[in-house]
Amino acid sequence: MRHDDYTCNIGCPTEAALEAIGGKWKGVILYHLSSGTKRFNELQRLVPAITQRMLTRQLRSLEDDRIVHRQVYPEVPPRVEYSITGFGRTLEPILKALQAWGEVYLKQLTGIRRESAMSCSDTFDEKSG
Fold first, then answer.
1. Per-residue model confidence (pLDDT) at position 5
2. Which of 41, 43, 87, 126 shows the smallest number of beta carbons within 10 Å?
């Protein structure tokens, strides 16, 4: 749920930032747009798990927040391209830091799951043995 006012407390700037780029898809969309302008169908191919409706909603939200620019060309059929705005480019260091953290996290998560699977199989072997 989006807020109309963020004057509530000291944590509100963080809440506002997470709301602007949070969720399952916005970060992924911004990641792909960071390499250049993309058409809607191109974004859909790059993020195959997203539905057309959800991609439209996420792009509109990013556009409303002036993070993404939508350019419509008066052609038949209309051509629509999406790009990151200058303001949106200020998110690039944050997105790169999230990507770097995500790489470390995935390695750690893989190790945790491997350890968990091994301890579960040890427990299973003890019970069956």
1. 57
2. 126
For residue 107, give the DSSP letter.
Answer: H
**pLDDT at 118 > cutoff 90:** no
74-97: buried (b, 16+ CB within 10 Å) or exposed (e) per residue? eeeeeeeebebbeebeebeeebee
* Dist CA 20 CA 27 (whole Å): 10
Sign of CA dihedral 94, 42, 49, 51: positive
- Of residues 121 and 44, more confidence is placed in 44
pLDDT at 83 over 80: yes
Q: Report how far residue 1's alpha carbon sits from residue 12's, in angstroms, rounded to the nearest whole number.
A: 14
**Burial classification of residue 30, based on how many CB atoms lie within 10 Å of its CB (0-12 exposed, 13-18 middle, 19 or more buried):** buried
Could you tell me the pTM of the whole model?
A: 0.76
